[in-house]
Automatic annotation (TrEMBL):
GO terms for biological process: ribosomal large subunit export from nucleus. Pfam families: NMD_SH3, OB_NMD3. This is 60S ribosomal export protein NMD3. Residues 106-187 form the 60S ribosomal export protein NMD3 OB-fold domain. It comes from Thelohanellus kitauei. GO terms for molecular function: ribosomal large subunit binding.
Length: 221
């Protein structure tokens, strides 16, 4: 069973069959079937970076987006402008991209102050945060799409863009001086704050970049 964080809607698939046994008297056959399915490798709360020309064609101001939902489409939001786009699997594979940061790279920050940046939409806010477990750390202000979800004293999870080790060709073309220090992703809840503790943990599919190996295995069957 696939985990809920992975997109179910695939773009293409490949099938093969191999004859295992054949009974000529009963005219019966037994086949071994193998199916290869290509799944969009983007999960909820991932940080992605689009190619500059592709981002402009979608009407986006910034290239770095946050994946806030994965269904039959990949739902992305610009945390600095609140612009949203919804990509189907076909749209994704026209200009495929990978996540530049995943949830295992999230850091904890304490919210000190929340100031709305847009009077028409309070979701966009300038949030003063302080990184936890770091001595002599100074507070700094970041713009975020979580203005309605965060309050002073809350704990938030975010990606440290300035110090992240990102290996992505689209990200390397960006001017780092124009990027925010931190991109906040969501509010962090401690186990004591949760009213109903989960008895299970959400798992993720391991991403295999070498898809040619899988295809060759199918072709050999």
């Amino acid at each position: 069973m696939f985990p809920a964080c992975i997109m179910f809607y695939y773009f293409w698939h490949k099938e093969s069959q191999k004859l295992i046994t054949h009974d000529a008297h009963c005219n019966s056959y037994e086949y071994h079937y193998t199916t290869l399915v290509s799944v969009v490798p983007i999960c909820k709360d991932d940080l992605v970076c689009l190619e500059n020309a592709y981002a402009k064609s979608l009407g986006l101001v910034n290239n770095i987006l946050v994946c806030y939902r994965v269904t039959t489409h990949v739902h992305l939001v610009d945390p600095l402008t609140l612009q949203t786009i919804h990509l189907s699997s076909k749209d994704y594979y026209k200009k495929p991209f990978d996540a530049i940061c995943s949830t295992h790279q999230l850091n904890k920050y304490t919210v000190i102050d929340v100031e709305p940046a847009d009077h028409k939409n309070n979701s966009l806010a300038d949030i003063t945060i302080l990184r936890q477990n770091f001595e002599h750390e100074c507070p700094f202000v970041v713009r975020s799409h979580l203005g309605l979800k965060l309050r002073p004293g809350y704990c938030a999870l975010g990606y440290d863009i300035k110090h992240a080790n990102v290996n992505d060709s689209n990200f390397e073309k960006l001017n780092l001086d124009n990027l925010p220090n931190v991109i906040l992703i969501k509010q962090s809840h401690s186990k004591n704050e949760r009213r109903f503790a989960r008895k299970w943990r959400l798992k993720r599919l391991r991403q295999n970049d070498d898809s040619s190996v899988m295809e060759s295995q199918i072709d050999d069957k």
